[in-house]
Amino acid sequence: MSTRAPTTAAAATTTPFLWGVSTSSYQIEGAASEDGKGPSIWDSYCRQAGRITNGDTGEVACDHYHRYAEDVALMKTLGVGAYRFSVSWPRVLPKGRGAVNEPGLAFYDRLVDALLEAGIEPWMCLYHWDLPQALGDLGGWAARDCAFWFADYAALIARRYGDRVKRFATFNESSVFTLFGFVMTGQAPGIVDRAMLHRAIHHVNLGHGGAIDVLRAQVKDASLGIVHNIQPCRSATPAPEDVKAAALFDAYWNGAFADPQLLGHYPALLADLIEPYAQAGDIARICRPIDWFGLNHYSPHYMKAWDGNPLGVGWGPAPDGIRRTSMGWPIEADAFRDTLIFLSERYKLPVYVLENGTANQDVVDDKGEVDDPSRIDYLKSYIDALGEARAKGADVRGYFVWSLLDNFEWGSGYSQRFGLVYVDYATQRRIPKTSFRWYADLIRSSAGGGPAIA
């Protein structure tokens, strides 16, 4: 049903490869109640006892709201061509709709202008999980109206920034914030209700389609996409019940959003579950032409049958001998390569990797430096795998490290560090890590090219 044009590996070889870094609003901005910002569902979730490691919150985070100029200067030193960040919906619309908050809008004006002055292309994501609490009180994504509130918010963003920003993503990782927010726990709003999950999936898809139409109509030369977290879902054992569980989770995790948005249908395992919440014409509203596929990828999932949530699915052990990050995620660069090839073949869109990276238990040494060789090893292996995917015909045009800064890592609070830059949260001092210098050298040596295509 989509009218997007097919792409080829040949096109990728003639398009400059884009190196970047990514962050998100709630994870770095802080200033959670300053300058008219309204509360988000994550502000509320963090105040609930036992939700976040060490009781951490995003109240201050990396104080990027006040220190954005320093962070842009770091990006300029790094040499990235682009920066993907998100807008805090409740910062610009404190109630989620209605009256706008000019100081919040002005913050993103300053950020965008600073990026452009530094020669860094802004990639603006409309939604990275921090729904205004006022809309959460009205049902949030489980309410069909939320799709239309989102489109109205997209129109505000388009009008304000479309003269300078051309790259927009509608959502980041819809599968994560719906699955963990509505059935598997660990994310705001912290509800366990399977029917609400299915409503939320459909309404997020509707919101995506509506926002794409608004951005396309209002932003000249817009380049539009969405960011999906695509990870192979493998059975932890050969047991039939575990094989079935892995297939079901794959439908939710990898297919519930990309398939209706790009192929015009829900995965077969989900279609009947979503159907009660769909109205005539909804699929046409969802399946709108976009220009690129944003990929976040870290590792495969190993799944098993489990009765601890309404889906009957849980995490099983990875095979013996596979290394893991400090988050416990398997390190398997081959799965990244295969995912890139799969996406290019299935959806026939240029792919930009908008998150990839690893958490470490980084520390400042006696010299005041942060040496993180394991992060360098991780990034090198995954970037090499990206080159292998390109050699096999995958149309991959960019790679963004998660993350520029150590930050608030959702349920893990500040206990996990993903950044190329170390943040001392007590002083807000930024310390570029060894991986920062390694990535800067890689970007300089690429001279506008990407990982080699054999």
TrEMBL record:
GO cellular component: cytosol
UniProt name for this protein: Beta-glucosidase
Cited NCBIfam families: BGL
Key words of the record: Carbohydrate metabolism, Cellulose degradation, Glycosidase, Hydrolase, Polysaccharide degradation
Domain of life assignment: Bacteria
Catalytic activity: Hydrolysis of terminal, non-reducing beta-D-glucosyl residues with release of beta-D-glucose
Location of the active site: 173, 355
InterPro entries tied to this protein: GH, GH_1_N_CS, Glyco_hydro_1, Glyco_hydro_1_beta-glucosidase
Enzyme nomenclature, EC number: 3.2.1.21
Organism: Rhodoplanes serenus
Residues where substrate binds: 27, 128, 172, 298, 402, 409-410
